[in-house]
Design brief:
The complex is a heterodimer of chains A (131) and B (213). Chain A folds into 2 domains: 33 residues; 70 residues, plastocyanin oxidoreductase (Helix Hairpins, Orthogonal Bundle), CATH 1.10.287.980. Helices cover 62% and strands 2% of the residues of chain A. The radius of gyration of chain A is 22 Å and the shape is flat. With 213 residues, chain B is mainly α. Chain B has a single domain, classed as Cytochrome Bc1 Complex, Chain C (Up-down Bundle). Chain B has 9 helices and 1 strand; from the N terminus they run ααβααααααα. Chain B starts with a helix and ends in a 6-residue tail after the last helix. Chains A and B meet through β1, α1, α2, α3 and α4 of A and β1, α3, α4, α5 and α6 of B. β1 of chain A pairs antiparallel with β1 of chain B.
Chain lengths: 131, 213
C-alpha cells in the first residue's frame, strides 16, 4: 500500500490548470446560453392541467417509478430508499479495498443501480406519461 | 506584503501555506476536476441569480411578467437567464459525475465517510434548488410541477399532510406557495448549501486528497 506520492505545487502549476479548465467551462456555458437560450413558455393557468406532464430530466427516474408503481406510497418510498442508500454507502461497503476490480460485488450493485436510474430516465424521456 | 504583515501578523505564513501546498499529481486528471467545476457552476448560479433577483417579482400576478421583462427588455437579461438555466442543469450533471468518480475510486472510504455524507446532502440540496427555482417563472409547466411535487409530498405517511400544507401555504395551493419557494430558492437553500460546501472543503483540507489507488 506504501506508494511514492508525486506532488505538484499548488502555485503555479495546479492553479493555472484549474484556471484553464474553469475558463473552458465558462466558455461552454456562454455557448450553450447563446445557441440554446431559455425561452418563455405559456404562463401558469390554475384551471388547465397540461397533458403528458413530465419533470426535468434529473427527476424523470423518480417520476417514472411514481407513475409505474400502482401503490402511491411505495412509488415514493422506492426512490426515497434509493437516495437513502446513497447516504449509507460508506457504511454498506466497509472494506478498505479501493480498486473497483477488487470489490466486484459492491461495485456491481452500485453500477446496476446507476444503470437502472439511467434506464428509467431514458424510458421516462421517450414515453408519453398520462394523458 | 510587509505593509500587510505589520498590520496582520502571520498573514505571510498563511499565503505561503496556500501557495506552496503540494497537490498530488494524480489529481491533474479530468475526473478530479468535476467537484471543482460543480463549485464553479454554483458560483455562476450565485452571480447570475443575484442579477435575476434585481428584476424578479415573487407574486403570482407579477412573476411571469417580470421574467418576461428580464428575457425581452432588460439588457443582457436573456443571457443571464440562459446562463442561470444552463449552469443549473450542468451543476446537477457535474455533482452526479463527481459522485461517480468518488465512488469508483473508493475515495469515500475511511477516513472520508463524513465527507461522502456531506456530498450526499449537497446532491439533495442541488435537486432542491432546482425544484424550487423551477416554479419561479410561473409558467404552466413550473406551476404544475410544483403542484405535483406538493401532492407527492402529501401522500407520505405521518409528515405528508403537514408538508403539503407547508409547501402550498394552505390546504389548497395559495399565493403563498410562490413566496415560500422563492425564499427557499434565494435564501435558505443557498445558505445551507454554502454551509455544507465549507464543511466539504475543510474536510478535504484536513484529510487530504485521497491517494492514487
Amino acid at each position: 500500500m506504501e506508494k511514492k506520492r508525486f506532488t505538484i505545487p499548488f502555485m503555479p502549476v495546479h492553479i493555472t490548470t484549474e484556471a484553464a479548465i474553469a475558463m473552458i467551462f465558462i466558455g461552454v456555458l456562454f455557448i450553450l446560453a447563446g445557441v440554446l437560450p431559455k425561452e418563455m413558455m405559456e404562463p401558469a393557468d390554475k384551471l388547465v392541467t397540461p397533458i403528458g406532464l413530465k419533470p426535468e430530466w434529473y427527476y424523470l427516474w423518480a417520476y417514472v417509478i411514481l407513475e409505474m408503481v400502482p401503490n402511491k406510497l411505495m412509488g415514493i418510498l422506492i426512490p426515497g430508499v434509493m437516495v437513502g442508500a446513497l447516504f449509507a454507502v460508506p457504511w454498506l461497503e466497509r472494506s478498505k479495498e479501493r480498486r473497483p476490480a477488487k470489490r466486484p460485488i459492491a461495485v456491481g450493485v452500485f453500477t446496476a443501480m446507476m444503470l437502472v436510474v439511467a434506464a428509467l430516465t431514458y424510458y421516462g424521456a421517450t414515453i408519453q406519461i398520462g394523458g | 506584503m510587509n505593509w500587510l504583515e505589520e498590520r496582520l501578523p502571520g498573514i505571510g505564513k498563511v499565503a505561503e501555506d496556500i501557495a506552496e501546498h503540494p497537490v498530488p499529481s494524480h489529481t491533474l486528471n479530468i475526473f478530479y476536476c468535476l467537484g471543482g467545476l460543480t463549485l464553479l457552476a454554483f458560483l455562476v448560479q450565485c452571480v447570475t441569480g443575484l442579477f435575476l433577483a434585481l428584476y424578479y417579482k415573487p407574486t403570482p400576478e407579477a412573476a411571469f411578467a417580470s421574467v418576461q421583462m428580464i428575457t425581452n427588455e432588460v439588457r443582457f437579461g436573456a443571457t443571464i437567464r440562459s446562463l442561470h438555466h444552463w449552469a443549473a442543469n450542468l451543476m446537477i450533471l457535474l455533482v452526479f459525475l463527481h459522485m461517480l468518480r468518488v465512488y469508483y475510486t473508493g475515495s469515500f472510504k475511511k477516513p472520508r465517510e463524513l465527507n461522502w455524507l456531506a456530498g450526499c446532502f449537497l446532491l439533495v440540496l442541488s435537486l432542491g434548488l432546482a425544484f424550487t427555482g423551477y416554479l419561479l417563472p410561473y409558467e404552466q409547466l413550473s406551476y404544475w410541477a410544483s403542484v405535483i411535487g406538493a401532492e407527492t409530498a402529501g401522500s407520505l405517511p405521518v409528515v405528508g399532510a403537514t408538508m403539503k400544507i407547508m409547501m402550498q401555504g394552505g390546504i389548497k395551493v395559495t399565493a403563498e406557495m410562490l413566496s415560500r419557494f422563492y425564499v427557499l430558492h434565494v435564501m435558505i437553500l443557498p445558505l445551507v448549501t454554502i454551509g455544507f460546501l465549507v464543511a466539504h472543503f475543510i474536510m478535504i483540507r484536513v484529510q487530504g486528497i485521497s491517494d492514487p489507488m
